[in-house]
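WARN no homologs supplied; continuing
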Amino acid sequence: MHTLRHATFADIPELCALLAQLFGQEVEFVADAATQARGLQRIFEAPDSGDILVLAEDDRPVGMVSLLYLTSTALGSRVALLEDMVVQPGQRGRGCGSRLLKAAVECARQ
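OK structure emitted
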């Protein structure tokens, strides 16, 4: 069974592995675990800057979505940008991505 939760510092190695899978699909990005770990840590250290949600199996992340927050001059208010979303290949087709996306939308609304 999958559980949905906010990511923690302890999840950084698994999150870097998920991001490596994501970046491996995109020509313009190259995975670098140290760089990704630094970015994740910055988000954790400044909770107002974003949220990272994980879908975990046996408490190990099998999917993630990250939201970054900024102020929109067009709207004059805070907005959320969905930055990264990835699910392990073996977990795809089981509703994991839909569940993460729904949770991200709910988190952004809050």
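The first helix runs from residue 12 to 23.
OK
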